[in-house]
Amino acid sequence: MSHGKLSPCTLQNHNKSIPLFLYLAHQSVHVGGGVQPLQVPAPLVGLYDTKIIHDKRRHYAPMVLAADKSIETFMNAMKKYGFDNNSIVIFTNDNGGPANGMHGGGSSNYPLRGSKYTLWEGGIRGTAAIWAPQLLQPKKYTGLTHISDFLPTLLEALDLPIPQGIDGISFWNQILTGKESARTE
């Protein structure tokens, strides 16, 4: 079952008096294997054939659309089942896009140099968005963070103790105040 179908079922069937941690790892906009490394969902194959000239972008666009639709379904289910006012949702990625090379995906990391599989910023820097309407006002945070920082950040946001010796530094206060990142590396 796809993420787009499974996550709303999880929300529908969850006892809201018990905290829920739900991790959705969308692979739809991701390099796969085989002859065509960009795996377009079957119903969307050919959707942009007459609209996008660039071959790789023509395959990439329906994958982005599939991810968008899945996220839309999930966010609508959050509202439908009453999770929208008591949740923290993090949208993030694991690396820069495969903009060139053998798995070039039609994406762009501009203005950063490099892409997936490289150690330049275009390969290691990603974006994230945190949605928590009950806790945060919309703003842009440009501080340095690492994926290992999400655990201590979530713990601090929930006013839970952060265990000693874990990797990661909470950046919750920086999100709230706009102060510089606590990271120095």
Automatic annotation (TrEMBL):
Superkingdom per UniProt: Eukaryota
Keywords on record: Calcium, Glycoprotein, Metal-binding
Cofactors (names): Ca(2+)
Residue ranges the record marks as coiled coil: none
Annotated ranges, domain Sulfatase N-terminal: 12-159
InterPro entries according to UniProt: Alkaline_phosphatase_core_sf, ARSB, Sulfatase_N
GO terms assigned for molecular function: metal ion binding; sulfuric ester hydrolase activity
Pfam families: Sulfatase (PF00884)
Similarity remark: Belongs to the sulfatase family.
Annotated protein name in UniProt: Arylsulfatase B-like
